[in-house]
Amino acid sequence: MNKFRLFIFSFLLILTACSKDKNNISVIKENRQDLEMVSAYKEAYIALNEGDPYFAAKKFLEAELLFPQSEWAPRSALMASYSYYLQNYYTEALANLERFLITYPNSKDIVYAEYLIAMCFYETIEDEKRDSGPIFKAKEKFSLIVKNYPNTDFALDAEFKLELIEDILAAKEMYLGRHYLKKEKWIASINRFKNVVENYDQTIFIEEALHRLVEINYRLGLDEEAQKYASILGYNYLSSDWYEKSYKVFNKDYSAQVPKKIKKDKRGVLDKFKKLFD
């Protein structure tokens, strides 16, 4: 009996010692992973600064995988997406950002991910003649940022981008309106120009849209409609080139000097993105 008790006691001591060894090994392993993660992140950041975003993206993802429970894991994922964005790999950036939103739903850096998603769509916008899909996706994302994160620099830049997107959407309507005008499809043309007047009246195309409505309605013999749009144009944009052209529709001998407009210049905040994770 005493021998049996001695055996049990010895066995328990061995188990305790093994347990301590396992804990020590676990701590050492975790520390090594932590150091490897920091090393990978640092290597990635250096590569990004030296103009090698492809290698940087690879190393940022490696850093995330090395220590997924670390607070640096979501940052590494974001920086990988940013690296993809810099080299115009928008598909890869979007896929990684969507994964980020699913993997780290409570991250304090969600706004950065949403902004970068919006920018990926924004960068794929070409012109008014091409696919409208990226335009509406970018508009949706920028609108979300303005609504959900109103007191951030990203919201300020999103508002500016939304203004540019409105210009692009208005440009698309103008392009189609002019196309129908050339084809003498009057109703289709009128509808496009009216859409600009009603929905994009803060864009640079409002004056031309009003003039086109004057021009088409006058040509169709709808003098009252033509005069209505001419009056709106004159009341709001008396000194513009388009008002001069509309005035000439009714007064063929009219001529006037119109001052040139000053263009506004605004900057975005994307260049601040990288600094958030220094």
- Structural classification: mainly alpha
Shape: elongated
Put simply, the count of helices is: 11
Mean pLDDT: 79
The largest pleated sheet is described as: none
**N-to-C SSE series?**
HHHHHHHHHHH
Radius of gyration: 31 Å
What are the low-pLDDT stretches, counting only 5+ consecutive residues below 50? 1-30, 253-268
Count the strands?
0
**N-to-C CA distance:** 66 Å
Q: How large a portion of the residues is in β-strands, by DSSP E? A: under 5%
Helical residues, percent: over 70%
Describe this structure in words.
- The protein has about 280 residues and is mainly α.
- Among the domains are: about 60 residues; about 50 residues, no CATH class.
- About 75% of the residues lie in helices and about 0% in strands.
- The chain has eleven helices and no strands.
- Helix 2 packs antiparallel against helix 3, helix 3 runs parallel beside helix 5 and helix 6 runs antiparallel to helix 7.
- The chain is elongated.
